[in-house]
Amino acid sequence: MRRRSLALLSSTALLLVVALASAGPAQAAPPKEKEKAERARVVKYWTPKRMANAKPRDFIKTSGGFVPAARGGNKPDKGPTGPGDGGDGGDGDSSVATVTGASWTQGGAALSGTGKVFFTMNGINYVCSGATVDDKGRSGYSLVLTAGHCAYDETRGAFATNWMFVPEYDSSPSSTCANTEHGCFTAVALVVHQGYAGAGGFNIQAIKHDWAFAVVGAGSQGGQLDVKVPDFPIGFDAAAEARHAFGYPSSGKYAGRDLVYCAGDVLSDRSADNATWGLRCDMTPGASGGPWMRDFDTLTGSGMLNSVNSYKYNGGKFKNYMFGPKFGSKTRDVYDVARSASGNRTVN
Questions:
Q1: Which helix (H) or strand (E) holds 22?
Q2: Over 50: is that where the pLDDT of 312 sits?
Q3: Cα radius of gyration (the chain)
Q4: Burial readout 290-318 (b: 16 or more C-beta within 10 A, e: otherwise)
């Protein structure tokens, strides 16, 4: 009797080993039900009133440093260490016509793949801009590019909450996810560089690393983001000049309902160690995180991402310029982590 019991136990153990082996290496699957519940919570959080009242989170550089754009700032920064061509500015021979701020009316990927970003930091609801990114085929998830300051609170050292992306907002500018063109997509993970997360504030170190990637799952109307809308390839060549910038500015002459673009030659900001681009552009707060593209095709509205709207000056010769970080190997490192991230991460 005892031998039979031992035989049964041995058979059971063998079956268990076979089952574990066939299951492959241990890997935590995304908790779909939890993820679905969290998506529903975030979408519910963004009531029409909250979306309509979300404040832009943008920064301007003054003589005393960077301050939130809403505060205006003290004396204008007009110092001799302001922007210059840095030896790699626009070559002056571009075929791109200069546009300092106009509605994008040509549709295509630029319209579909660019959208608005909503999030909460320190109890305040904010709005920025963002764009879809080619994640090289991750099933069930998609990537969104935005500014670091639209994903991480650099002063308090905390990731944003209630993070949500609304693609192609221009086509159906609604404060209700059900009425938008493609629905709303909430973040499963936010990924930034430690150079931004550890900056301690919005400063020179921060602007050199002012990019972030959000991993989003299925949308509020169902479907995968990069199946519903085009995504953009991303480049990491710091010497390649972006000559088109997009965003949803929502103050001053802009109301945040219209996709706006700027185009023209670029220069480098010497006061940021030539680590950021400058483009003549009158986009106002709300545009932060919107994509910059090089090799842009106006017929298809497609191009390669290589910067985002980051900051402006509050006075001087370059007051009407927008600046953004030059993408490079550190951007690639963050992108590589984001492609498989399932939770918030900072990347060294």
A1: helix 2-23
A2: yes
A3: 22
A4: bbbbbebebeebbbbbbbbbbbbbbbbeb
Specify burial of residue 25 (Cβ count, 10 A radius: 0-12, 13-18, 19+).
exposed
Burial 53-85 (b: 16+ CB within 10 A, else e): ebbbbbbbbbeeebbbbeeebeeebeeeebbbb
Q: What is the pLDDT of residue 70?
A: 77
Return d(Cα 268, Cα 223) in angstroms, integer.
40
Residue 103, beta-bridge partner list? 260
How large is the average pLDDT for residues 186-195? 98
In the DSSP assignment, the letter for residue 229 is: S
| Strand bridging mode 291-297 / 276-280 | unpaired
Neighbours of 123 (CB within 10 A): 6
Q: Which residues pair with 186 in a beta bridge?
A: 164
- pLDDT for res 32: 85
Beta bridge partners of 262: 245
Please identify which residue in the block is written with the tokens 């940021």. Answer: 272
Please check the confidence at residue 93 and state whether its pLDDT lies above 80. Answer: no
Which secondary structure element, helix H or strand E, spans residue 11, and what is its range? helix 2-23
Write the DSSP assignment of 168-207 as a string of letters: TGGGS--SSGGGSSS--EEEEEEEEEHHHHTSSSSSHHHH
CB count within 10 Å of CB 99 equals 18
Closest CA to 28 of 340, 344, 345: 340
> What phi-psi label fits residue 276: left (phi over 0), alpha (psi between -120 and 50 degrees) or beta?
beta
Mean pLDDT of 105-124: 98
Enter the pTM of the model. 0.88
> Distances from the Cα of 70 to the Cαs of 57, 117, 191, 249, 304, in angstroms?
8, 18, 26, 13, 31
What's at 277, amino acid-wise? Answer: W
Q: Give percent above pLDDT 70 in the chain.
A: 84
- Rounded average pLDDT over 277-302: 97
What confidence tens digit (pLDDT) does each residue in 247-258 have? 999 999 999 999
Q: Please give the backbone phi and psi of residue 113, each rounded to the nearest 5 degrees, phi first.
A: -90, -5
